[in-house]
Amino acid sequence: MSEQDTALVSRCQDDDASAFDEIVLRYKQKIFQYILRMVGDSEEAEDLTQEVFIKTYLSLRSFRSQASLNTWIYRIAGNLCIDAHRKRVRKDTAMGGAPVSLDEGVGTSGDGADDARTSRELPDTRLEPYGVLARQELDGQIQLALEALPEKMRSVVVLHDIEGLAYEEIAEIVDCPLGTVKSRLFNARVQMREKLREYLEA
Amino acid sequence: MRKNCKDIRPMLSEFIDGALDSEGAWTVRMHVSSCQSCAEDLRLLEGTVSLLRSTSQPQLSERFDASLALRIEAARHLREESIHGSVVSRTLFGLRSSLSANRFAIGRALRLSAPVVAGACVMAFLIVSAPSGTVMRAPKAVAVNDTSGFVKACQHEQQSYLAGQPFADPSAQALMQRQTDDALSREGAVLLGSGNI
C-alpha cells in the first residue's frame, strides 16, 4: 500500500472525517465508471457506488495494510456488482426469463429484456453537435459490446483497459490467478473487436 | 523454433500491453512482419484497446455527494446505536477477557495452594472420624468407671463406622477388627486414667 494510502487509512481509523472525504474524492469517479460499465445503468451504478463507500467507511477500522486500499475498494465494488447481477438474474428468472450466469453476457440470450436494456443504453443524440453525436454513439456501442461479454470477462477488460489497472491488481480484485486474468483479457478483447469491427475498419 | 499463427495470437494481447519479455516481443514482431493475417489481427486488437481507453468518463450526478453524506451519516448512527446497545455484552465480554487474561495466574495460585487445602481437608476428616473422635462422642450414659462398658460402647461405635467399609477379604476384616479393638482398649484406658472423661 502506498504511503499516502496508509496515512489516509490511519487518519480514518483515528476518526478524521476529512480523510474519508479524501478517499471518496479520489475514488468516486473511478468506482462509478467501473460499476457503470458493469451494470449499464447510471442510476443503479450511482447507488452501488454509494454502497461501496458506505461499506468502505464501516469496515475501515478493521482494514489492515496487507492489501492496497485501491484493490480493496475495487474488490468491494466487484462483489457488489456480482450481488446486483445475481439479484437481477433472480428477478429475471422469477419473471420467467432464462437465468444468465457470470460466464455469460447479458446480451447473449437475445430476449425482450435485453432489447429494452439496449434501447435504454443508446444515447438520445438528436440535439447534439456531430462530433459529440459520433462520440456518444461510439460510447453507446462500446457499452453494448461490453454488456455482451460474460461478467467475468467484462470485469477484467474494464479494470484493465478502462480503469488502467495492472494484471496483478486485477488478479487480486477478481481473486483468480494471473494467467486467468491474461486469458480472460485476451478473449474479451477478441470479442470486443468483433462487436466493434465496423468502427475499427472505418 | 518458428511459431505459427495459433501460437502467436494468444500473445497479441500481452504484446499490446508491453507485458511480454524481450524474446516473446521479438517473436511476435518477427511473425507479424511476415504474416498478413496476424498483422491485421494485431491492428484491430490495438484499435479495440485504443477505443476502450478513449471512452468518455461518465459523470456522477450533482446530488451524489450530498446523498452519500446522508447515507454515511445514517450508517454511522446505526453503528453507534448497535455499539451502545451492546454495552452490557461488551462489559461481560471485557470481564471474561480479563479473567481469561489472568487465568494463568489464578491457575498457578490454585496449583500452589492445592496441597495445603488438601492437607487441611484430610486433617478435618481425621479429626471427625478418628478413633479419638469416636471416644469424644462416647455415650454419656456409660458409667465412667465401667471400663468394659465404655470400651464396648466405643467398639459399637467403631463397628458401626467400619460397617460401611467394604472388605474383599474376610480375614483382613477380622484383622482390622482386632487391631481396632486393641487400640480402643488402650486408648480408653489412657483416657480413663487421665480423667479427661
Largest sheet of chain A: none
Please give the alpha-carbon distance between the first and last residues of chain A.
Answer: 43 Å
Mean pLDDT of chain B: 70
Helical amount among residues of chain B, as a percent range?
over 70%
Large-scale geometry of chain A: globular
Largest interface: A-B, 40 and 29 residues
What is the number of E strands of chain A? 0
Quick tags:
heterodimer; A: 202 residues; mainly alpha; Rna Polymerase Sigma Factor, Chain: A; Arc Repressor Mutant, subunit A; 0% strand; globular; B: 197 residues; 3 domains; 9 helices; elongated
What this model shows, in words?
The complex is a heterodimer of chains A (202) and B (197). Chain A has 202 residues and is mainly α. Chain A has ten helices and no strands. In chain A, helix 2 (17-39) packs across helix 4, helix 3 (42-59) packs across helix 4 and helix 7 crosses helix 9. The termini of chain A are far apart. With 197 residues, chain B is mainly α. Chain B has three domains: 5-53, no CATH class; 64-100; 130-194, no CATH class. Chain B is built from nine helices and no strands. Chain B has helices at 5-17, 22-34, 36-53, 64-85, 87-101, 103-129, 131-136, 147-163, 170-194. The chains are: A mainly alpha (202), B mainly alpha (197). At the A-B interface, helix 2, helix 3, helix 6, helix 7 and helix 9 of A face helix 1, helix 3 and helix 4 of B.
